Amino acid sequence: MQSIYLALALFLLLNLSAGMWRVLRGPTAADRMLAVQLFGTTAVAVLLLLAEASSSAALRDVALVFALLAAVTAVAFVRRAWDFVEDNDDRK
Q1: Other CB atoms within 10 Å distance of the CB of residue 73
Q2: Is 46 exposed, middle or buried (0-12, 13-18, 19+ CB in 10 A)?
Q3: Contact indicator for 85, 56 with CB cutoff of 8 Å
Q4: What is the pTM of this model?
Q5: CA-CA 20 to 30 A from 68: which of 22, 36, 48, 77?
Q6: Tens of each residue's pLDDT in the chain, 92 residues
């Protein structure tokens, strides 16, 4: 069973190449931010798979911290983007 978890973790890491392409070539900031959210979600999934494969509770804790950081990052981006949109609306 451990090899299945490791194979799934490797598959998820390979999927990050698609996300990296979107970060580098994304037409809008929102596309780039969604790709970064993909990184956070994938990091949590990989850590949970590795925690299950190695029976490590510490990796589960790190995955929870990453999940919280991903949520805070999303909120910070939306607040910054919202302020940017409001500033541009005031100039019209």
Answers
A1: 15
A2: buried
A3: no
A4: 0.77
A5: 22
A6: 899 999 999 999 998 888 888 888 878 877 888 888 888 899 999 999 999 999 999 999 999 999 999 889 888 888 887 776 666 656 65
Residues 5, 19, 64: CA angle, nearest 5 degrees: 50
Are the C-beta atoms of 28 and 13 separated by less than 8 Å?
no
Do residues 81 and 30 lie in contact, with contact meaning Cβ atoms separated by under 8 Å?
yes
Question: Could you give phi then psi for residue 30, rounded to 5 degrees?
Answer: -65, -40
Query: CA separation (Å) from 91 to 77, 85, 88?
Result: 22, 10, 5
